[in-house]
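Running log. JK asked me to keep both predictions on one page so they can be read side by side. First protein, sequence followed by its tokens:
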Amino acid sequence: MGSINQIEKQVSEFKDNGKITALLEQGANFEGRLTFEGTVRISGKFKGEIFTNDTLVIGPSAEIDAQVEANIVIISGKVKGNIFARQRVVMHPPAVFRGTVTTPSLRIDEGVVFEGASYMSRGSPSNP
């Protein structure tokens, strides 16, 4: 397990090396169910469900209203909904989160708005 700086560096390297599976940039809107492998960065608006065994990065300009199940979730934007992360969730400013987080590792940096509940699981949300 690495620090947030290591994760951000890895995400940056994925983007530079073409390893990010998809980008939903600022100004884009999507509603529905998103499933993917690899790393996806969302900077636009998304409403629905997100499922992956990999990494979801929510950028500072993102507005998410979704149920999320992922391995790692990194949040800098606005998120409303429930997150189930098998490995970790990291929130750093200017993140605003409203909902429930279930994960074995949760990091909330100073300056983040967190309104909701958190549950520390020992692994997969399907096997609490």
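And the second, directly underneath as requested:
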Amino acid sequence: MIPCTLDHVRAALALPGFDGEGAQLLMAPALRPRQRPAALGTTPRLGGVLLLLYCVDDELHLVLTLRPTYDGIHSGQVSCPGGRHEPPETLAMTALRETEEEIGVPPAAVELLGELTTLYVLPSDYEVHPFVGFHAGGRPVFAPHTREVAAIIETPLSLLLDPTTRAEEEWELRGLRMAVPFFVVGEYKVWGATAMILSEFVERLRAVV
């Protein structure tokens, strides 16, 4: 179990030469394109997401959210708080603003610790910029936006660091059968871009603890 300290997290985020993309690909669905298809032209939409850390009973946790069921690509999936970039804000500001809008944690309560590797998500044509932040006041008082968040999923970091939390199944996605790895977090399966982002964070921590 990782101690509830920021020293390991800061060290993990500062690792020189770390292969972030390679760590993400450990949890990538089979057949997932590694780059944005040139045929799409123009540029992808930009988004910022936040891995929000906090301590409960001397153990480091992070918060995930369950998206509501709706007529859209990411319906019912588990994600990190975040959303679409709105100029002229920075992408870090996007992640903090969206976190407040989705789960009610204000930017002033979050210390930004660093950034993970940018990730492209083809189904929604988003270039996602993940940030890591820490809520120093213990467990935040969550106030989920009911139209954007169906459930708050409080996740001990030790659970993600446990190799038995990782699993893989064959699913049909967009008409194709493929192997899909995921983290088992309680009753939820965390897969896709969120699992890839978490995979990089976890692999960075494994390198320093």
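Observation for JK regarding the second prediction: The mean pLDDT is 91.
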